[in-house]
């Protein structure tokens, strides 16, 4: 113990949200997050001053993980949003924007935060009730019998990330590929518990996006010693496959306890054992020999001489895919011979050229629900963003399969919900206020803040200075481009595409005061028209998380910072 | 070596310290309060309304402050609630004393006053509460209470510990959890079990809103099955303490002592028909492979304490391979993308696990600690209640005899009225001091609407003279816990008053206990 530091006392801040510096940080962060929302988002370049990678992104999970805010309250919010994204894959930015707007609305008005929190909670219950009810007009059924709505979901997911750098045709193509890959992961045949397969994503840099493709089965990196001639010599499939998860390197250090008798060379003895394994595999007529870890070069040579295709260093992730695709059981030891039922089967082997990468294609025998998505893109940064986006979309599609409902995208769900809540809160103000032990004025003020925050999330989708409108019939969101005069006759359809403009419709700019109205359900024939859709479970959870985290932040009355 | 000589402990320094502490906790006092947010440069965050946690995290240096924190800690260990009220009461008691004695304050007065406080605490307090609170409460509004008493107690507790939204979710949840364990029969035993094993009987899941929380049947093992197969209604579970070693040659046994010999596991699995293996250690890959081939469920790297609890509840029996318990079902729980293994022991069908969800680690910790606190509070109330009337088996009796009161200042108002009334003939100065001090609690509770406070006070005075009582349902609190709180505050105040000099030393203090530990 060289020296003893005296502990310094903690730094305390009373009512942190009334502190101007903290408010400024909140505003800045809100601007950063809100400007990342939607297909016309402003991209963020994240880089470290001392060098390293530069990533261009507008994706929540990448941005929030890479840029930790300095303000501890914001850290809390970021952590919660990241947790949400991890679970649901989508609507993270929405949660962040809504949460920050709620905090902003309350602090700007300077109203009593505990009343505001109670009102928010109450309105959240109403939102939840409405969204889950059968007559909710902000959601549409996803028809699993046709590709239309699933494709719309995928398309909205891809097009909302401009950092992928895709043009409309490419967006369409990637969405279609994603859907195709997703459909291949659904196993055929009806068992009680359906387990979805997985899509392995392989990125290829420096190729045009059109070259992206979906392959059934798996693509492995071609081992150096394998030539296309070797495959031709194999003859027609299916081929038998042996799989090892134990290392076959023959290293002594990996063996743990063993007894060594004097006079024997342990390495030679081990190699002999390995060769015995090879001998058995060859005797059992296996054509493919895969190992998760390293294979001893002598064993590799031995197998190759007998016409066996050898692939080593698969990695644990690929090992799982191989087991589920081929039905092979990975042998965990080289001591015992591989039992007959542990072998798997592959229908065909071929070499695929994916841009500059040569890949060995393993085709499945039956319907294994495993496929490989090869994504090509021009540069690394865009490819990374595209990969993240594809993961998100796959997640969203999986959630849609579980609960075949989608929410209207493009801001329409937010404006619609806001109009509905505004209507309810005005109608039942006195009753709800007495329930919550506050005055009707306080209740209406807090409810207004809630609705404005929802509208702010819709408004954040527009970044080019266009005017965001809401119609007074259905409560949908409409955008009038900036360079045009505001003329409601030029409006054709709302942001989600569900409502077409018709005579007698009225609009109001979002955020302005407007006469009270109860949003009507859309005309009956139009539900199939919605072309911008969002994931229902993700957005509903995001709404909950946003209100909860805003309540938590508003609840904080005292901050104590430990300086030790 | 004494570095510094005397630094006087008059009335002023402790009062200042207590006022500062009071200011810190007052922000989160009562259902209208907010929370306190701690951060550390290492990135740790803590959101809490728990008075004791706040005090502990402040890392106070001042000797008087540390003495107070110690007193609060001791009190909370017993009653599990009331740390914020403690500071409020202490602060107003001290300031009442200062304003009462004024200029004539010296150490002799302090000592005398401390003596009288203690005297009151030992001899008068029980009497005051019995006559002033319990008797009157039993004839008061409490008759109109309708609703579940456990729920009332939990609700009263939660209102001070978490925000309004979480409280609405957590209070019924904790009650359901208790009811599942108790099976509808009232008794202190299930609460004692939950209280002792709370850390093993809850599972925290982050990333989901708090509304997704629930109660799951059986014990949740916090990890997923490595291999899982559906099994019939009754299965034998083999619990392994260590990893399996192959023991290639029969009869030779294992190479090391800490392994379980594989042949023994096989024999045990076959003889008993055990088709679920639970292991505290990571098992070799070939065991997993064997399990998959033989349709045996396998879960690895489990918390040994959880396994011990499972064996305890499942009345396991030892075998050469490990302990064996019977389960009525083994399941896989799916919670927001996370999969968890769950086992229902056959001998403990009432065993349940609390599943707590929260959007992130901060709020989740708050929920967990609030639920833990609620269980501890229930445990204390049940114990007190049983010691007072062991035969009683219904809550109506506890309500009727005035051992439970509505939250929101009823206790303090009743006590205040009694201490100042002519019925009480105790030490007049102490009575007056205490009567004024206790008003600070309802005052702080209704600080956002002072008019409520006056109305409530008037309401109680009216009822005391036979006014009507409305039926009501809301939070409840136990009079025993309040009594405990008052006596702790009085003792702490006496301690503060009797200290005359603080000596600062550099050598570490050796207490008899630390000597024993070293031996």
From TrEMBL, chain B:
GO terms for biological process: chaperone-mediated protein complex assembly. InterPro entries: BBS10, Chaperone_TCP-1, Cpn60/GroEL/TCP-1, GROEL-like_equatorial_sf. It holds the Pfam family Cpn60_TCP1. GO terms for molecular function: ATP binding; ATP-dependent protein folding chaperone. Keywords: ATP-binding, Chaperone, Nucleotide-binding. Belongs to the TCP-1 chaperonin family. PANTHER family: BARDET-BIEDL SYNDROME 10 PROTEIN. This is Bardet-Biedl syndrome 10.
């Amino acid at each position: 113990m060289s020296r003893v530091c005296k502990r310094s006392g903690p730094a305390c801040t009373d009512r942190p949200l009334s502190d101007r510096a903290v408010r400024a940080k909140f505003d800045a962060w809100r601007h950063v997050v809100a400007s990342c929302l939607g297909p016309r988002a402003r991209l963020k370049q994240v880089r470290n001053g001392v060098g390293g990678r530069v990533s261009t992104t507008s994706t929540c999970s990448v941005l929030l993980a890479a840029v930790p805010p300095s303000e501890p309250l914001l850290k809390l919010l970021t952590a919660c949003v990241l947790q949400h994204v991890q679970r649901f894959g989508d609507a993270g930015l929405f949660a962040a924007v809504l949460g920050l707007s709620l905090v902003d609305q309350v602090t700007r008005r300077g109203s009593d935060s505990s009343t505001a929190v109670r009102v928010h909670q109450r309105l959240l219950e109403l939102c939840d009730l409405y969204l889950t009810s059968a007559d909710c007009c902000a959601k549409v059924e996803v028809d699993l019998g046709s590709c239309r709505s699933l494709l719309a979901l995928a398309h909205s997911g891809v097009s909302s990330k401009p950092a992928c750098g895709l043009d409309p045709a490419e967006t369409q193509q990637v969405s279609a590929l994603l859907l195709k890959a997703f459909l291949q992961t659904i196993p055929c045949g009806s068992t009680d518990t359906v387990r979805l397969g997985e899509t392995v994503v392989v990125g290829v840099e420096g190729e045009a996006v059109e070259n992206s493709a979906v392959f059934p089965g798996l693509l492995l990196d071609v081992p150096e010693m394998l030539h296309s001639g070797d495959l031709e010599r194999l003859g027609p499939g299916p081929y038998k496959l042996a799989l090892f998860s134990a290392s076959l390197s023959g290293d002594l250090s990996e063996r743990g306890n063993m007894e060594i008798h004097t006079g024997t060379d342990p390495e030679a003895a081990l190699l002999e054992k390995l060769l015995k394994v090879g001998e058995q595999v060859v005797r059992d007529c296996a054509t493919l020999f895969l190992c998760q870890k390293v294979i001893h070069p002598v064993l590799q040579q031995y197998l190759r001489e007998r016409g066996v295709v050898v692939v080593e260093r698969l990695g644990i992730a690929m090992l799982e895919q191989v087991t589920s695709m081929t039905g092979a059981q990975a042998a965990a030891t080289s001591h015992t011979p591989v039992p007959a039922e542990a072998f798997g089967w592959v229908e065909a082997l071929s070499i695929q050229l994916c841009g500059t990468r040569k890949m060995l294609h393993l085709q499945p025998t039956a319907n294994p629900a495993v496929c490989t998505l090869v994504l090509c893109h021009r540069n690394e940064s865009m490819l990374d963003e595209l990969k993240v986006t594809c993961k998100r979309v796959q997640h969203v599609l999986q959630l849609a399969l579980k609960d075949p409902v989608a929410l209207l995208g493009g801001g329409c769900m937010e404006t619609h919900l806001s109009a509905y809540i505004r209507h309810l809160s005005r109608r039942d103000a006195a009753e709800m206020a007495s329930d919550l032990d506050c005055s009707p004025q306080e209740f209406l003020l807090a409810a207004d803040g809630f609705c404005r925050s929802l509208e702010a999330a819709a408004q954040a989708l527009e970044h080019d200075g266009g005017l965001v409108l809401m119609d007074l019939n259905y409560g949908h969101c409409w955008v009038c481009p900036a360079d045009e005069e505001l003329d409601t006759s030029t409006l054709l359809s709302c942001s989600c595409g569900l409502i077409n403009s018709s005579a007698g419709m009225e609009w109001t700019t979002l955020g302005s005061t407007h006469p009270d109205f109860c949003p009507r359900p859309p005309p009956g024939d139009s539900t199939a028209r919605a072309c911008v859709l969002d994931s229902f479970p993700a957005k509903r959870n995001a709404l909950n998380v946003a209100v909860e985290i805003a309540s938590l932040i508003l609840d904080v009355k005292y901050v104590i910072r430990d300086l030790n | 070596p004494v570095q510094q000589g005397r630094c006087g402990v008059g009335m002023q320094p402790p009062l200042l310290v207590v006022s500062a502490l009071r200011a810190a906790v007052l922000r989160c006092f009562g259902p209208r309060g907010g929370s306190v947010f701690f951060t550390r440069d290492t990135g740790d965050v803590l959101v809490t309304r728990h008075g004791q946690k706040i005090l502990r995290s402040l890392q106070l240096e001042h000797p008087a402050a540390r003495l107070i924190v110690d007193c609060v800690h001791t009190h909370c260990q017993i009653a599990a609630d009331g740390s914020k009220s403690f500071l409020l009461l202490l602060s107003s008691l001290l300031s009442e004393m200062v304003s009462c004695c004024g200029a004539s304050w010296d150490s002799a007065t302090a000592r005398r006053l401390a003596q009288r406080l203690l005297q009151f605490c030992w001899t008068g307090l029980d009497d005051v509460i019995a006559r002033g609170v319990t008797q009157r409460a039993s004839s008061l509004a409490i008759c109109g209470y309708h609703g579940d008493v456990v729920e009332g107690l939990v609700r009263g507790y939660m209102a001070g510990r978490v925000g309004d939204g979480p409280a609405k979710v957590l209070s019924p949840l904790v009650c359901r959890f208790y009811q599942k364990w108790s099976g509808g029969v009232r008794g202190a035993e299930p609460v004692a079990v939950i209280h002792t094993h709370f850390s093993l009987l809850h599972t925290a899941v982050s990333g989901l809103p708090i509304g997704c929380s629930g109660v799951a049947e059986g014990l949740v093992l916090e990890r997923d099955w490595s291999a899982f197969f559906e099994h019939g209604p009754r299965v034998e579970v083999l619990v392994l303490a260590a990893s399996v070693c192959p023991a290639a040659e029969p009869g030779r046994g294992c190479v090391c002592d800490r392994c379980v010999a594989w042949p023994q596991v096989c024999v045990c699995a076959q003889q008993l028909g055990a088709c679920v293996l639970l292991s505290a250690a990571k098992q070799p890959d070939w065991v997993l492979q064997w399990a998959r081939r033989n349709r045996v469920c396998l879960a690895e790297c489990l918390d040994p304490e959880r396994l011990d609890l499972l064996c305890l509840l499942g009345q396991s029996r030892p075998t050469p391979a490990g302990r064996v318990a019977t389960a009525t079902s083994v399941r896989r729980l799916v919670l927001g993308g996370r999969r968890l293994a769950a086992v229902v022991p056959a001998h403990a069908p009432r065993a349940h696990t609390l599943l707590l969800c929260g959007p992130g680690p901060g709020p989740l910790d708050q929920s967990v600690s609030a639920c833990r606190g609620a269980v501890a509070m229930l445990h204390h109330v049940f114990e007190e209640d049983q010691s007072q009337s062991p035969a009683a088996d219904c809550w109506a009796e506890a309500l009727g005899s005035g051992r439970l009161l509505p939250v929101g200042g009823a206790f303090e108002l009743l006590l205040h009225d009694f201490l100042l009334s002519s019925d009480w003939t105790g030490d007049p100065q102490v009575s007056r001091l205490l009567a004024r001090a206790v008003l600070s609690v309802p005052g702080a509770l209704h600080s956002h609407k002072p008019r409520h406070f006056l109305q409530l006070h008037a309401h109680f005075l009216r009822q005391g003279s036979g006014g009507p009582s409305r039926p009501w349902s809301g939070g409840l609190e136990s009079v025993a816990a309040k009594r405990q709180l008052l006596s702790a505050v009085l003792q702490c105040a006496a301690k503060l008053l009797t200290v005359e000099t603080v000596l600062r030393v550099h050598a570490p203090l050796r207490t008899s206990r630390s000597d024993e530990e070293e031996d």
